[in-house]
Amino acid sequence: MAELPRLFGVETVTLWSNLQLGSGMKRHLPFALTTLRLLLGPIALACALAGVTRFVYLPILIAATLSDIFDGILARKFGVASPALRRYDSITDIIYYLFILAVAWLLCKPVIAGNLWLVGLMLLSEAGCISICLVKFGKFPATHSWLAKFYGLCLLAAFIALLAFDAGNWVVIVLAIVALATNSEIIAMHLIAKSAPVDVPCIFALAKR
Length: 209
Fold this sequence. Notes:
Blueprint: E1 6-7, E2 10-11, H1 12-19, H2 29-50, H3 57-77, H4 83-107, H5 109-114, H6 116-137, H7 146-164, H8 169-192, H9 203-207
Antiparallel strand pairs: 1-2
């Protein structure tokens, strides 16, 4: 078979072949849920630019988080879980949250601008995770550790507080602490792993492998 194009280390054919195993549309649900999250980011930004009420972000943020939880659960249940699908999930997370960060900049500019160095540290730690995995393994990171899952819930709470309820500086400070702890563990995982870690609960679990 001819060499296939890659998207951040995800082979298109590998992703689709895993999704199309067996019959029934239910096997496409994990991919559909992840793609839904990918679309919710631009929708949120469009709402911010249109000046709609802040409470519209509640269903957007909750739907995105639920899709992030259930895409993995359903992929395992239907037997279509694969490293390619998990990396697509991770890429989608990054794109979605960059859109949500843009929304936060538009709606909560004083809070974001006042804590720009913390936001910068969070983005730098994310870039560090991606860069180390790409350089060492040639793939996009997809650890999905317990701490990363907790970080996802913290992101939900933080953006609800900021976007829907116009919360203050404390939200960014708390989120930065969780983000740096999470990404530090992910970086450490990639530094000690012999192959790209996928769905590893924590660094101690990786050390036992």
